[in-house]
Design goal:
Helix 4 packs across helix 9, helix 6 runs antiparallel to helix 7 and helix 21 packs across helix 23. This protein folds into 5 domains: 188 residues, Hypothetical protein af1432, CATH 1.10.3210.10; 154 residues, Beta Polymerase, domain 2; 118 residues, Roll (Ubiquitin-like (UB roll)); 139 residues, no CATH class; 75 residues, ACT domain (Alpha-Beta Plaits, 2-Layer Sandwich). Strands 1-2-5-4-3 form a 5-stranded mixed β-sheet. A 5-stranded mixed β-sheet has the order 11-15-13-14-12, covered by helices on one side. Strand 13 and strand 14 form a beta hairpin. It is 46% helix and 15% strand. It is α+β, with helices and mostly antiparallel strands and 724 residues long. The protein binds manganese (II) ion. Manganese (II) ion binds next to loops.
């Protein structure tokens, strides 16, 4: 075994994170002493340099306890050093508060200690900004995911956990309200993250400290109960341990045997959630036996089974079949003296380290180490399963070389202004957010604020941002919105709104057309004829809107319906002359502009009624209009004088084949403030080409200006406005 075993002396639970009131001040020299056991001298020098920078930057700042601030980052670095984390993590730990609290900037850290360290420090600062204050379980889960999603590098999380651990160890000096908030956050957010990363030692300590700070009374009562039971069982426990140690000696096995304690928080939670009494929860003895190598684990198993009978069905071999998070151990339950069950875990030193420090253990192995491949493979597997990753994030080697894994590649987590967390798919925009909040908010939104700055609705959201939606009562969804939403909800709502609008507009237009037709026949009453009800029934409509809709969409001719309504009525003499329908633009979707002749404002136009399409506007001179024989189908229409839209116009050019002609044409058109929305080119022969273009123009004058400029291009031989 080439990884260094931390020795076989008996230890308290938590290999490296023993909690004790910190005896005396932990100094940078103490840190270096730990680092010397596993880092290169060069790396330690860099860390020492970071210490000098940090001490200088924090100079004069005090913690709530009254001690110099630098002792906090130093203590955080120590926690990571005890887990044998890499040099960049330790450096980042020492500098983790400088961006936030001092004048040192990210660029400086990057220059001095490299981009990786700068990225880690920056990542930790970002997490420090997040404050969790909701008590809902679902929100806690989302908050945890948000934190993990924001940390582009897992080491950011590890530094943050160590930071939180030290803050918890020193929480006693804070005001009670602050203490409770931080304790709750620790129990709901940080301890579960530590658990997910398999870091049992940190998790247990965070839970114990969090429990103590949040419920001091319950903590004390429970602790006293545990001490009492331990006292009662002390003799028995001692006897069992002694028997096992002697048996192992007989077998010639060197091992560390020690009792395990269930942590208070998990006892408390079990009692609370399952309504159990203390004695029901705290009912078993638990022992852990740690040995040098894997083979010995099985020999230990045999040895203890000869000493006490195993409980049938309780043996588990997590060495042969590790848990998803890389945990390995043999589990068995023995019939102890007086029939008391004894839970036994048997594992190697390396397995113990993985069980205690989880993901951090995987940084411990150097490349080429006999364990590194298996550990890496397991770490990778673990991330995939434990983190609910949807995608494979590459192979094992890639994982260790580049720990910048995107833990939630498919999601983005943002806050509402009230601090609620919304989960959206990656790439979601402000508009998706608006619809996620509420359909009405989406339908009436005009802009968003991201972290209090105005931003367009189409802005893609980033993890951790606070997003606010600005609405206006007259705002309406636009079809262009469909281009920049990614959620099904937003898309569906925009579509259904537009469809609804289309129906409304068709109904209004149909009514207008009918009134027009009636007026042409001399009917001048603002109310529709009283024959309406009878005609509706005859034609099979439930309500007038349905009839209007069919007229608006061209299913029924307004003149025919008008005639029916007026049957039997006296037609007043001198029917009204033609009062044209005013065309306000393309907004109403039951109005279409014919593609054959591309009418633009200023052109004389007529409307035709086409079933299913509603009114189609053609240029008056269009050949297709003349083909429509039935007079009743042609409507008189007119452009509204205040149109502010662009319309496509087709033009055709014949040019000499010379280099750069198309570019000159395009730049001429754009210099006139028009866009080209379509081009097709056909080579007539080697000398000339025909270019068909669709140009977006405001009106006839705008088009005429463009055509005039195009004629000035020498290569343009022929130029016409195309007509279907
Ligand atoms: Mn800190």
């Amino acid at each position: 075994m080439s990884s260094e075993p931390p020795g076989l002396k008996p230890e308290e639970e938590g290999v490296s994170l023993r909690h004790a009131p910190e005896p005396e001040r932990f100094l940078v020299s103490d840190l270096c002493a730990i680092l010397e056991t596993y880092l290169e001298p060069e790396e330690i020098k860099t860390i020492y340099r970071a210490y000098l920078v940090g001490a200088d930057a924090h100079d004069g700042q005090l913690r709530a306890s009254g001690e110099a601030y630098i002792y906090h980052p130093l203590a955080v670095a120590r926690i990571l050093a005890e887990m044998h984390m890499d040099a960049d993590s330790i450096t980042a730990a020492i500098l983790h508060d400088v961006i936030e609290d001092t004048s040192v900037e990210r660029e400086y850290i990057s220059e001095q200690f490299g981009e990786d360290v700068a990225m880690l420090v920056d990542g930790v600062s970002k997490l420090t900004h997040l404050k969790f204050d909701s008590r809902e379980e679902a929100q806690a889960a989302n908050f945890r995911k948000m934190m993990l999603a924001m940390a582009s590098d897992l080491r950011v999380i590890l530094v943050k956990l160590a930071d939180r651990l030290h803050n918890m160890r020193t929480i006693g000096v804070l005001r009670p309200d602050k203490r409770r908030r931080i304790a709750r956050e620790t129990l709901e957010i940080y301890a579960p993250i530590a658990q997910r990363l398999g870091m049992s030692a940190i998790r247990r300590e965070l839970e114990r400290l969090g429990f103590e700070a949040l419920y001091p009374m319950r903590y004390r009562v429970l602790e006293a109960s545990v001490q009492r039971v331990k006292g009662q069982r002390k003799e028995l426990m001692h006897k069992v341990e002694g028997a096992i140690v002697r048996r192992l000696e007989e077998y010639g096995i060197q091992a560390r045997v020690h009792g395990r304690e269930k942590n208070l928080w998990s006892i408390y939670r079990k009692m609370r959630d399952k309504h159990l009494s203390f004695s029901e929860v705290f009912d078993v003895f638990a022992l852990r036996i740690v040995v040098e190598n894997k083979d010995t684990c099985y020999r230990v198993l045999g040895a203890v089974h000869t000493l006490y009978k195993p409980l049938p069905g309780r043996f588990k071999d997590y060495i042969a079949i590790p848990k998803a998070n890389g945990y390995q151990s043999l589990h068995t339950v023995l019939f102890g003296p007086h029939g008391i069950p004894i839970e036994v875990q048997i594992r190697t030193v390396a397995m113990d380290r993985v069980a205690e420090t989880g993901i951090a253990a995987h940084w411990h192995y150097k490349t080429g180490d006999e364990h590194s491949n298996a550990a890496q493979r397991r770490a990778h597997e673990w991330l995939r399963t434990v983190m609910d990753l949807q995608h494979n994030t590459g192979n094992a080697l890639e994982f260790m070389e580049n720990v910048k894994v995107d833990l939630f590649p498919d999601e983005v987590y943002v806050f509402t202004p009230l601090g609620e967390i919304m989960e959206l798919p990656r790439g979601a925009t402000g508009l998706d957010f608006a619809y996620a909040v509420h359909t009405d908010i989406g339908n009436s939104c005009v802009a968003i604020k991201i972290d209090r700055h105005l931003a367009p609705l189409s802005t893609p959201l980033q993890n951790g941002q606070t997003v606010e939606v600005l609405t206006a009562p007259n705002a309406r969804p636009k079809s262009a919105w469909l281009n920049y939403v990614v959620t099904a909800k937003a898309r569906h709502n925009i579509r259904s709104f537009l469809k609804n609008i289309r129906r409304q507009e068709a109904v209004e237009q149909g009514r207008l057309l009918l009134e027009n037709a009636l007026a042409q026949k001399g009917y001048r009453d603002p109310e529709l004829p009283e024959t309406l009800a009878a005609v509706l029934e005859e034609l099979g409509y439930a309500k007038p809107e349905d009839l209007f809709f069919d007229i608006g969409t061209g299913e029924r001719l307004p003149t025919v319906v008008a005639a029916r309504l007026l049957t039997g009525r006296e037609t007043p003499a001198g029917g009204d002359s033609d009062s044209p329908l005013i065309i306000e633009g393309a907004e109403g979707m039951v109005l279409n502009f014919a593609r054959c002749c591309t009418p633009i404002p200023g052109d004389p136009i007529v409307g035709t009624m086409t079933a299913g399409k509603g009114i189609v506007i053609h240029r008056a001179e269009c050949a297709n209009v003349r083909r429509i024989s039935d007079d009743g189908r042609v409507l008189s229409v007119e452009w509204s004088p205040d149109l502010d839209e662009e319309f496509p116009a087709s033009i055709r050019l014949v040019t000499r084949n010379e280099r750069g002609v198309l570019a000159r044409i395009a730049s001429t058109i754009s210099s006139q403030g028009a866009n080209i929305s379509g081009v097709t080119i056909s080579d007539d022969d080697s000398m000339a080409s025909t270019i068909n273009m669709v140009v977006e123009v405001r009106n006839r004058k705008h088009l005429a200006d463009i055509l005039r400029k195009l004629r000035n291009i020498p290569e343009v031989m022929k130029l016409i406005r195309a007509l279907g």
